[in-house]
Amino acid sequence: MKRFLKKYIFLLTVLLFTPLYGQQQLNDLNTSWQNVLPGIVITEPALTSYGFCLITDARLLTAFSNEGVQLWEKPVPRSRNLILSSLPGDFISLIDNNSKTIKILNPSGGEIWSKKLDYTVTNPPFAGRDGRFFLMGENILECYGMNGVCKFSLETENQKKMSPQELPDGSLILFVSELAG
Predict the structure, then answer these.
(1) Residue 165 near residue 173, CB atoms below 8 Å
(2) CB atoms closer than 10 angstroms to residue 69
(3) Cβ neighbours of residue 120 closer than 8 Å, sequence gap 6 or more
(4) Beta bridge pairs of residue 62
(5) Nearest Cα to 122, choosing from 157, 91, 163, 94?
(6) In whole angstroms, what is the distance from residue 64 CA to residue 56 CA?
(7) Which residues of the chain fall short of a pLDDT of 70?
(8) pTM of whole model > 0.85?
(9) Is 31 helix (H, G, I), strand (E, B) or coil?
(10) Per-residue pLDDT tens for 76-122?
(11) In sequence order, what are the beta bridge partners of 83?
């Protein structure tokens, strides 16, 4: 009987204090806000100076402030193959690899321009120093200005799925897949 009573008291103690332990773990994360999203997040959040943007399967691109305030919300096309990233100046790039288009949005979510691409983009855009950015396909590199003009396009060997790197002089380094032989 004593053994049963000890097990019962132990079990009761564990059940009573477990929620307090879980609450302590949540407090250790220092969460300052929470929000219920309209769907499941399908892209990695794009960080901006005002907070972040993300896309949910409810086909919405939503921007939040660092304090959790929803700043704006825009519809996006139905696609599971989207790449979302931020560019300097808090501009947002939205690449839809199903329709092979890129859209550049201003910090308020308004579309500045969009362009049809001839290839599938493999990585998020890489921002250059002077407001330009680079798009990479499997064997192509293109440079765009923030006005939507393609400054140059280079065909390359098959590239690795790695971000390019920039040297101090502004030169760009691409990593290509291993060549046969």
Answers:
(1) yes
(2) 12
(3) 97, 100, 137, 138
(4) 54, 73
(5) 163
(6) 13
(7) 1-2, 4-8, 10-31, 179-181
(8) no
(9) coil
(10) 888 778 999 999 999 999 999 999 999 999 999 999 999 999 999 99
(11) 95
